[in-house]
Structure formats: C-alpha cells, structure tokens
Amino acid sequence: MSEIRKTFLAIDLLRLAIGAGLFIAALQLQGGSPFRWILTLFVIYPALWILLTQLGLVDEMKHQWLVYIPCTADLAAFSFVFYITGTLNSIAILGFFVSAIMSSLNVQVRTGRYIVIVSIITVTVLSVSVHLGNLPGVNMVGGESTITTPQLILSLLVFIPSIIIVQKLVFNLTRSIRQTADELFAEKEILKARNDIMERELELARRIQRHLLPSSAPIPCIHSVYRPMHMVGGDFYDYPFLGGDGKVGIFISDVSGHGVPAALITSMIKTAITRAGGVAADPAGMLRYLNATLYARTGGNFVTAFYAIFDRSTGNLTYSNAGHNRPLVINGTNVRELECSRSLPLAITDDNFLESNGKMFRNDTATLEPGCKLLLYTDGLTEAAPADDRTRMFEEVLGQNLVELGRLPGNEFVADLYDRLVAFRGNGSFEDDVCFICVDVA
Asked: What pLDDT does 178 receive?
C-alpha cells in the first residue's frame, strides 16, 4: 500500500470514529432525531469508502466527483457540533470556514462553492429554527443556547459574506499558485528537453573529438592518456609526421578555457595539422604555421603547444615550444626538465610581432639516453588537487611517482600514473583536462 493510500485510510478511519461518537451523542439528545439521520451519512460514508477503496472497486483519482461525498459527510458532522454547542453562540461555526478553505484548495473539482452554499443554508436553517423554537436550544459546553433577533440578523449578515469572500480568496490564490506551478513545470520540461538535446549534441561532439585524436600510436614505444574535464575538452595531441627513417612527430597542445569553445579550437588545430604538408618535418616551422592559422580566429583564447620530432634509431629529439609545460625526462632516479627556448603561446600575436621582438619559435635539440622516458603533458596533470584540499597539487608528488614508476613498460607506466593521479585527487573527476604522452627510449 502506498503512503498516500495509507494517509487516506487513516483519515477515513478517523472520520468513522468521530462519526460513530457523534451518532451515539445524537441518540442521547432529546429531539435530536433529525441529526441521527444526518449523522448516519457521516458514519456510512467512511465505512463504505474504506470498503470500496481497499477492494480496489473505486479509483478516487479517476472519479473526482466522489469528493462531494466526504464533503457532505463532514458538513453533517460540523452541523451537528454547531447545533449542540449553541449554534451562533458556538465557536464551532469556524468549522464551516475550515471546510470551505480546505475544499477550495482543489481547483480541479470545485467543491468550495458547494461547501459555501450548503454551509449558508445549514447555518441559516439551524439558527432560525432555534430562534423560532422549532428546534430546542442546546449548548452542551455551557453558555447561552437561545438566539435573539438582533443577534440572528447580525450574525448571518457577518457570516454569509465572510465565508463567500474567504472561499473566493482561497480559491483564487490556489488557482494562481497552481497556474504558476504549471507554468514552472512546463518551463522545466522545456529546459529538460533542451538539456537532453544539448547532452546528445555533446555526446556527438565527444565522439567526433575522439576521432580527431589518434586511435593508436604510430610506433610501439609511445603511450598516451587523455581525459577531458567535460564531455569535450581543449587538450589535444597528435602524431603529424612519420618518416621512413624511424622519425615520428609528437604534438601536444592545451587550449585556454574548457568545454565546447576549447574543443572547437582543437578541431581547428587538427585541420591545420592535417594540411601542414612538408612543414610538419620542422617543429619550429609547424608552430609558426599554426600561429599564423589560429591568430585572430580563436575568440581571445590562446594555445600552448609543444612539437617534437623523435628519431627512435638515435634517440635524437628536435623540438620547439610555444609557452607549453616543459617535458620531463625520467632516467632511473633522476627526473629533469627538457631544456627549451620558450616562446609565447599560439594565437596571442602574429608572426611579425614575434620575429621583431625576438620571440619567434626556434628549434632545440637533445639526445635521450637509452632506457629513459620522455613525458609530455598538459597542466591538468600537475595542477590536479585533492577534492578536500585545494592547497596541494599533484606536481608536488609527481617527481617521486615518476621515479617509482620509471622502470615499468610504457603502457603500464601511463596507466599506473593515471591511477595515482585519481587516488591523489580522490575521484576521477578533474577540474581541467588531463593529457600526457610517454615515449620509451630504447
């Protein structure tokens, strides 16, 4: 049984108990026979209603007109209490106001007007009958039981417009609240539909972006990890050049900002790299080409980038840096940064400004020792912080982790490094894109 049905059952059982008590009181009341018949309804209704609803013969949500039955039964009880406590001398008259207010909260079945009409008729008939002596005056709680003519006229003149006004105000307020709630619900549904569309589009964008990234490394000694902060991200890597002499190009970049705008810029980078042609064999030339392509087309975003040509047969590395994190060389217990001639990030200014100010991208060279590892990464790796302590960063423990993992094969190295990053963070949700590439030097 649902919680709502349990509540309805409890209310009806309470009605049954109250009705039985009032019916017994009516039997003891001299001249109270009319109320015995009226109160019979209040006793029969909950008993019959409990039987029908519990057997599943009546669905009160579908047959909303049935709500008039409990309203009538409640009015019967209020009428009896009103009579035996002195009619217009009784505070029980407030029960009719309560009934009118409660029924006005249902704007689908308008029982409020019905309650008001029946209440006005009941109060008027009982009060006039007592005043004229057709019914004996009764006040079982003590006090006056008779009604004077001025009292009768004044009380009815106050009661009748008051209950009409109260019912109308409550009904209008309830209807206004209901309309506002319906409008808010409709807007919520519209927003939900739009959000679903955006989620589907983002999922499509995520799949598209995944296709922009390499499905595999061009040579077995290169391994990578890519985890965007959102469904799409601004980190990017690629292998733009593969020479027949064992040389391979390794490119990594990080667009400022996050989400869809950054992802759009990565697609621009991918397109530009695909069209680079022979310039891909020259790291500094590649960065100059990308800067000229991206400048004034990124909406104010800039791009840090590192591009290197690695010769696996000799261990030689020719590279150029555009404001990116310097790669790390791991050799046994030694972890060091690769020396770079750093320049400004891409898309900040044009090539003429870079050239005239001595900031143009330049090539550097290095020879990597056999057995070492080269780690290229974006700042999402080093700047990751524990969820409960933003004062610490993974950069503080990165060196020790690299030493401990340095002798592992490249695939295990990147997997274990990512696992340690997640453990340090406390979960797999990051505040920036995470991307890193490991090159095993044979």
From this structure: 86
Single-letter residue type at 18: I
Contact status, residue 238 vs residue 278, Cβ threshold 8 Å = no
DSSP characters over 307-326: EEEEETTTTEEEEEEEBPPP
Q: Are 76 and 41 in contact (CB under 8 A)?
A: yes
Q: What is the pLDDT of residues 257-293, one digit of tens each?
A: 888 889 899 999 999 999 999 999 999 999 999 999 9
Alpha-carbon separation of residue 170 from 61, 81, 105, 161, 178 (angstroms): 22, 24, 7, 14, 12
Give CA angle at 349 (347, 354), nearest 5°: 120
pLDDT of residue 63: 59
Higher-pLDDT residue of 436, 174: 436
Residue that is written with structure tokens 């869809």 in the block: 260
Question: What residues contact 31, with CB distance under 8 A and at least 6 apart?
Answer: 135, 136
**3 state SS of 280:** helix
**pTM value > 0.85:** no
- Average pLDDT, stretch 91-116? 82
Measured over the CA atoms of residue 12, residue 13, residue 18 and residue 23, the dihedral's sign is: positive
d(CA 334, CA 303): 30
Q: How many residues make up the chain in this entry? A: 442
**Separation CA 371–CA 439 (nearest Å):** 10
Q: What's the pLDDT tens digit per position in 124-138?
A: 988 898 888 887 777
CB 165 within 8 A of CB 107: no
| Cα angle, residue 227 at apex, residues 263 and 397 outer, rounded to 5° | 125
